[in-house]
Amino acid sequence: MKPAWPACFVSCALLLLATGCDDMSKQHKENPYASPASAPAEQVPGTVEYHDMPHPVPRLTMALLQRGRSEYHAFCAPCHAESGNGHGMVVQRGFPAPPPLMATDGRMGTPLHLHDVITSGQGIMYGFAQRIGPDDRWAIVAYLYALGRSQHATRADMTPEQLARAP
Ligand code: HEC
User: Fold this and answer.
1) pLDDT for 97
2) In whole numbers, what is the pLDDT of the chain averaged over residues?
3) 20 to 30 A Cα–Cα from 81, which one of 32, 90, 93, 126?
4) What is the pLDDT of residues 49-90, one digit of tens each?
5) Nearest one of 111, 117, 122 to 145, comparing CA atoms
6) Which residues span the membrane (predicted)?
7) What's the domain count of the chain?
8) Cα of 126 to ligand 1 centre, how many Å?
9) Burial classification of residue 8, based on how many CB atoms lie within 10 Å of its CB (0-12 exposed, 13-18 middle, 19 or more buried)
């Protein structure tokens, strides 16, 4: 199956960049489905098999991306770095460096593949099934796409409001 996320990654990513990270401690506790923008919490068509339990892919919302950002910073950035280049703190202290998460053009594995790696791990990377719930794993996947797109965004990707504020 393919999660049919709408193509709002770039503007969401730019918004994320614009809003910065100053209130992350607050965002960490935020419920992605509490946002008025996401109510009611309808699902995209299609489900994925998560172990023996089908788990629906959460709808892509700004709140989901913010949740993904804070989870990524907490659980992944120590190794993969905030940019995804693989030179996080743990790696600087001697842990083997992971490959960059995004190809130079911002592309990466399919959403399902990324979700599987987060769930079960890969090679020397341990899985996070016990530590990160399925929705939050999808939130991280969505954020990874936004991060990849944000690193290859051009002025053409910006909204008129963002252009007005841009240097
Ligand atoms: C302890 C360090 C560490 C942490 C924490 C960690 N990873 Fe990894 N990750 C690695 C290493 C090392 C690899 C390469 C593993 C291998 O193939 O042997 C890897 C591989 C990956 C890959 C596959 C990359 C590829 O091109 O094959 C993805 C995707 C990934 N990690 C995502 C994540 C996400 C998302 C998180 C947070 C939920 C995370 N990782 C947390 C170290 C880490």
Assistant:
1) 96
2) 78
3) 32
4) 444 445 688 999 999 999 999 999 999 999 999 999 999 999
5) 111
6) none
7) 1
8) 8
9) middle
Q: Looking at ligand 1, which atom is closest to the CA of residue 132?
A: 38
Which one, of 84, 35, 33, lies nearest residue 56 by Cα? 33
Asked if residue 6 is part of any domain, the answer here is no
CB count, 10 Å around CB of 24?
Answer: 13
Expressed in angstroms and rounded, the spacing between residue 86 Cα and the centre of ligand 1 is: 8
pLDDT at 12: 52
Residues having CB within 6 Å of any atom of ligand 1? 75-76, 78-80, 90, 95-96, 98-99, 101, 114, 117-118, 122-125, 128, 140
Give the domain extent around 118.
65-165
pLDDT tens-digit map of 86-105: 999 999 999 999 999 998 88
Higher-confidence residue of 106 and 99: namely 99
Within a domain: 118: yes
Q: Which amino acid is located at 142 in the chain?
A: A
Measure the CA–CA gap between 75 and 62, rounded to whole angstroms. 20
- On whether residue 16 sits in a domain, the answer given is no
Look up the CATH number of the domain holding residue 150.
1.10.760.10
